[in-house]
Specification:
Blueprint lengths: L6 H10 L4 H14 L6 E4 L1 H17 L9 E5 L26 H8 L3 E6 L33 H8 L5 E6 L5 H7 L2 E4 L19 E6 L2 H11 L29 E5 H4 L6 H16 L3 E5 L4 H19 L18 H12 L2 H14 L5 H24 L2 E5 L15 H5 L6 H6 L3 E8 L5 E7 L5 H14 L1
Parallel strand pairs: 2-3, 2-4, 7-8, 7-9
Antiparallel strand pairs: 1-3, 4-6, 5-6, 5-10, 9-11, 10-11
Helix pairs in contact: 2-3, 7-16, 10-12, 10-13
The structure holds glutamine.
Length: 475
Amino acid sequence: MRSYSSFSEIQSDLKAGNLSVKALVQAYLDRIEQSKHLNIFLEVFAPEVLQKAEMLDAKLKSGTAGKLAGMVIGLKDNICYKDHKVSASSKILEGFTSIYNATVVERLLKEDALIIGRCNCDEFAMGSSNENSAYGNVLNPLDTTRVPGGSSGGATAAVAAELCLATLGTDTGGSIRQPASFCGLVGVKPTYGRVSRYGAIAYASSFDQIGPITKKIEDAALIMEVIAGKDEFDSTLSDKEVPPYSRELKQDVSKIKVAYLEDCLEKEGLDPEIKKRTKGVIEQLKKAGHTVEPVRFPFLDYLVPVYYVLTTAEASSNLARYQGLNFGYRSKNATDMESTFRKTRSEGFGKEVQRRIMLGTFVLSSGYYDAYYAKGQKVRRFLQNKTLEILSNYDFILLPTTPGTAFKFGENSADPIKMYLEDIFTVQANITGLPAISLPMGKHSNGLPFGLQLIGRKLEESKLFAFSEYLLNNF
Ligand code: GLN
């Protein structure tokens, strides 16, 4: 089978009769089989998806198929799909089967998307390299000695290795955008409250969002159009109508004003080639007549600490439910209730998850609550206000997605602080709840890709996609 990088290519081949959904699915399944060494899929729903493909071919013939018919999608292993296993790549959810569909899954299925399997990730979405999975490392398909990024490492590698057309990941602090940067793809973190979190296994509920990972903007826009919008199961969702993003990509972007954060470009640790490319795009945009101006944001050093204070607090509360009684794994060595809790959690959770639960319990504990958690909330509000101030004058903030390109296995894992600093440019969008996208706009002399990032105004995804399309096509 030829390789496909966009849904429209698939659709035109289906229409022309050069391709059937069944043949497409079979080709993806074959490729998954050949790519097993990358450890991307934890499970492939092979017989089921082939059967559905056949039904879809019939539906397409009779003209009754939904708008995603022929789109083959993978799910990060923290998104629930009814009657299918889901584990958040944790031992503690071993053997657990979803009893309902996440809203995003429900909406994809309704439009006849095919879900081919579940993708490896960092345990409970905590990590930046996929090295925290209970099911082993995912290899970066572009260079197997390197990490694919995380925590949606499998979901991103799946698209890069063309094992499916698109995937859904989750992004709490960069987990869609950072691996997209490392694998040369488009990754979208929607506005907080744009996409339902119902059925996404919670990590830090006031930060988490589900979003697409694709090769092309048009496909990310189309998927967003299907999955976004009001949901009675998630009260944090906006009532605002979802625009037809995929049909608004050609809107006029000539008057767009862009800010860039000088402090980001001056940040030590930023790879010089990424810095140069970011500056190059800024200059090109100016030449093309756009207003692109530097702004100060001397608060970068607060972003990662405040992210880790607040997300660990939320995680310690969210993960309290895994105690060996209701879900998945239960320790065989437990003798009473307390030892069931203690042993199940010690044996079932990996090191990083345990570290974060303990940190979170600490920042919430009486005596420290005011000093850490309450203070963290205030700092979060301050950072939100400062970011919104910038966006009251500009449509977008342009910045790198990651300080470097994909790193080698083991390079950062001995030092959690070093690993946490991977998130320096991505957490701002989650702290503020704003939409952000990583665009594959860089190629390093080491041969690896890297991304540039745009942060937009609240719920202005339509403009974000249109400007992204313009950037990708012209710069
Ligand atoms: N790398 C970040 C972390 O480890 C982001 C995770 C995420 O977005 N889920 O928390």
